[in-house]
Automatic annotation (TrEMBL):
Residues 5-273 form the FAD/NAD(P)-binding domain. InterPro entries: FAD/NAD-bd_sf, FAD/NAD-binding_dom, Ferredoxin-NADP_redctase_2. This is NAD(P)/FAD-dependent oxidoreductase. It comes from the Bacteria. The lineage of its organism: Bacteria, Bacillati, Actinomycetota, Actinomycetes, Micrococcales. It comes from Cellulomonas shaoxiangyii. It catalyses: [thioredoxin]-dithiol + NADP(+) = [thioredoxin]-disulfide + NADPH + H(+). Keywords: Flavoprotein, Oxidoreductase.
Length: 340
């Protein structure tokens, strides 16, 4: 095992690459292991990102990789499939073979969107089937929007969509019954409420066309909002002994605000710990985690330097021959009283 790094970052999205840039700028040896499966790959653009509004996700990541590499980070296209402790370090196993060793592991592994099991949802996901009004709402403003109720967040999601369009329909598919207050608000805002099981979303290669219910009713729509279950990609964390935390919307890796987990020398940034983080927030989290990691390593390096200095001093003292007692000197020291 010859590949050794200060930090191995698993995940080459916004959080992982921002961390790699920050660590590289602090002269840390960094490896980013990236499987090449960004969560936002289906999206046409990344939004709410100051200075890069609407940038295609793959273009943004390519620029991030170049920036990280310009500061000495290594970006490797591979999948991290295992993690274990070995002595005072961490070892990450790669799918294409071989292991790499790290002093610190940063998990920027993101999350998996577990979509409702309705035909058409996955096929149009990230285009005109969406979940975040801040990421995709502007693009469907003023259009016919359906909201597929699969969780107790559906009424809130319908209200958010109603801000963007006068034509919103909430399909009470499999979510819980509406509270009286929720129903009153939706009705007051002219949100249509449709009871019944959604059988499928009709679409063609270019666009979503309609929501079709099991009883045959059909409702023409231009976009549908859904609420996936957000599941943190936490296999490595669990292999190292960590336990994921439950959230009303899914699971996540618990951490301090800066990304420190309960496991020594294991940090996390991005959607794996913050289910709501958008691209800009994930990048910020990567920078903060990197700063915390570098701070820890700086102190560890300083403590190691103190130990080495002490060991050299002890070794030199042990190797020094005992001075003769002649001349009133003991171990090379003059007697009290000076030169006399």
């Amino acid at each position: 095992m010859t590949d050794r790094y200060d930090v191995v970052v698993v995940g080459g999205g916004a959080a992982g690459l921002a961390a790699a840039v920050t660590l590289g700028r602090s002269l840390r040896s960094v490896l980013v292991v990236d499987a090449g499966e960004p969560r936002n790959a289906p999206a046409a653009g990344a939004h709410n990102l100051l200075g890069r509004e609407g940038v295609p996700p793959q273009e943004l990541l390519a620029a991030g990789r170049r920036e990280a590499e310009s500061y000495g980070a290594e970006v490797r296209s591979d999948r991290a499939v295992g993690a274990r402790r070995d002595g005072d370090g961490l070892v990450v196993s790669l799918a294409e073979g071989g292991d790499v060793r790290a002093r610190v592991l940063l998990l920027a592994t993101g999350l998996t969107d577990v979509l409702p099991d309705v035909p058409g949802v996955r096929e149009r996901w990230g285009a005109d089937v969406l979940h975040c009004p801040y990421c995709h709402g502007w693009e469907v403003r003023g259009r016919r929007i359906g909201v597929l109720a699969t969780s107790d967040n559906a009424p809130h999601q319908a209200l958010l969509m109603r801000q963007l369009s006068d034509d919103v329909t909430l399909f009470l598919h499999s979510g819980p019954d509406l509270e009286d207050t929720e129903r009153e608000q939706l009705v007051a805002l002219d949100v249509r409420l449709v009871q019944g099981t959604v059988e499928r979303l009709d679409h063609d290669d270019d666009a979503l066309r309609a929501v079709v219910l099991a009883d045959g009713r059909r409702f023409d729509v231009d976009a549908v909002a859904v609420a996936p279950r957000f599941v943190a990609n936490a296999d490595l964390y669990e292999q190292l002994g960590g336990t994921v935390s439950e959230h009303p919307f899914g699971t996540y890796v618990s951490s301090s605000p800066g990304g420190r987990t309960d496991l020594p020398d294991v940090w996390v940034a991005g959607n794996a710990t913050d289910l709501a983080a958008m691209v800009g927030g994930a990048a910020t989290a990567g920078v903060l985690a990197a700063a915390g990691i570098n701070g820890d390593l700086v102190h560890a390096d300083a403590e190691a330097a103190v130990r080495r200095r002490s060991e050299r001093f002890d070794a030199a003292t042990e190797a020094r021959p005992h001075a003769s007692l002649a001349g009133g000197r003991v171990h090379g020291l003059e007697p009290v009283g000076g030169h006399g």
